[in-house]
Amino acid sequence: PASVTQIKAHAFAGCKALTKLLIPSSVTSIGDYAFEDCESLTSITIPSSVKSLGFFTFKGCTSLSKITISSSVTEIGSSVFAGCSSLTEIIIPESVKKIGTSAFVGCTALQKVVIPESVVSIGNYAFDGCSSIVQLMIPKSVETIGFGAFRGCTSLSQISIPDSVETIGGLVFCGCASLEKLEIPQSVKQIGNAAF
Description:
The protein is mainly β. 0% of the residues lie in helices and 20% in strands. The chain is built from no helices and 16 strands. The strands form five sheets. It has a six-stranded parallel β-sheet with strand order 6-8-10-12-14-16, with no helix packed on it. A three-stranded parallel β-sheet has the order 1-2-4, with no helix packed on it. The chain has a three-stranded parallel β-sheet with strand order 11-13-15, with no helix packed on it. It is globular, with a radius of gyration of 17 Å.
């Protein structure tokens, strides 16, 4: 109902038969693990009223193939979409400044990722194991690419790193067996252990 302003931690966690949910525009925050392991949930729209997503919010929602993130969300937190193995596309809104640790880890069907110019950091293991991503453009706003951010992206053949990036963490492209072309800009000051 429209009277709801918060969806608290674990609110719908483990509701394995839940297929659809309409979040009202009165909701401003969604708590940690709120929809964890809702295995039948296929799509969800996060309204513009929501400003924050808790950790592990949609972790293990294995049927989730479509999600719309509102333009009011400023950070995609840790493991928010971890293990959403049916998710094929994600368009990150321009309001987002940070992609958190393991945000999309294990999203094995993810093919298209649009990262906006607003993002300044890509967290550790953010796209680890996203084995269906073929191409990725990192915007000029990004300064840091975290540890293992694209580890195990086995289909990734091309990636563009802008000259805004100063740090490339360890294991970033480890296991990217299809990577054919990569240009490291002059701006990079540090490349971590086993980065490739």
